[in-house]
Amino acid sequence: MAVPEALRDFWNAFARACGGADEAQFCEAFAFGDSPALADELAALVLQGTKRATASALWTYQAEAKPLPRPGQLSIVTSGAGVPLCVIQTLAVEVLPFDQIGADFAASEGEGDGSLAFWREAHTQFFSRECAQVGRVFQPDMPVVCERFRLRYPPAGG
Asked: Per-residue DSSP letters for 93-141?
């Protein structure tokens, strides 16, 4: 996938800052969550270096005929208004049943108090909304795409 023209200047700034970037590694530009406010909140956690993982319903990928992210891919994270904020690089991807996701992954998402209990409550609500959009119903054992990533640009806190 090519870097969208509207984000080209941002991508080029990233490439200059890291001494070059292979556009073939570009995966997508996206905002976290399902609302502008949530997108802004979660992007701020990425920029602070707190959020180092994200979770999505596998059913959404399937409904959109979208391939799963792969280690090494680069994505531009935008604000809820579509403003590019940072570049992340996928480190690992694992598909797990919702009810088998552990405390370590929940903490790496960096949301709320970082606990598994908070993660499960917040993500039950989120996945219920996400599933409804693709004609599915949240299930405790539904498949979840667990993606770990690192912030590539700008540096955390920068």
From this structure: EEEEEGGG--HHHHHHHT-TTS-HHHHHHHHHHHHHHHHHHTT----TT
Residue 28 buriedness (CB in 10 A; 0-12 / 13-18 / 19+): middle
Q: How far apart are CA 115 and CA 112, in angstroms?
A: 8
Give the end-to-end CA distance of the chain in Å, rounded to a whole number: 27
Residue-wise pLDDT for 18-57, tens only, equals 988 999 999 999 999 999 999 999 999 999 999 999 999 9
Distance CA 153, CA 50 (A): 14
Asked if 95 contacts 136 with a C-beta cutoff of 8 angstroms, the reply is: no
Specify the fold of 5-152. Answer: Sulfate adenylyltransferase (3.10.400)
**pLDDT number for residue 1:** 78
Task: Count CB neighbours of 155 within 10 A.
Answer: 11
Q: Answer for the pair 69, 61: CB distance below 8 angstroms, yes or no.
A: no
Which pLDDT band, with edges at 50, 70 and 90, does 90 fall under?
very high
Spatial contact of 148 and 101, defined as CB atoms under 8 Å apart = no
d(CA 147, CA 100): 15
Q: Determine the 3-state secondary structure of 68 from DSSP.
A: coil
